[in-house]
Amino acid sequence: MAGRVFLRACSTAVQLRSGVAARPLQRAMATVRGVPTDEEQATGLERRALQALKQGKDPYSILKPKQYAGTKEDPHIVPCIGTKRMVGCLCEEDSTAIVWFWLHEGNAQRCPCGFYYQLVHHELPK
What we know:
Elements: H1 2-18, H2 38-41, H3 44-54, E1 76-80, E2 84-89, E3 99-104, E4 109-110, E5 116-121
């Protein structure tokens, strides 16, 4: 409301001062197309992530991971770009302490609480 009043006052002042009919001022987003979408406005890493999600990929692990049983046959999958990674496990649901341990590439490894984790090599997109 205050913006409209200000624009009218400015355009009226310009017309009175110059004596020439001036084109009224417009707001920045008052174009024909309207407000740009997230995809139109995104740049850099955000743009790459949106394009990958559009293709059905999740290169930066943005989406919630798939649930695994945590057994030796169906371990929790941990993606990594190296050969080892530190993993934290909340062994009990209401626990306030996190058990940290190193997970190495290869076979599934067991947490002290009994859950199994397996490191899987993950390539970053280019």
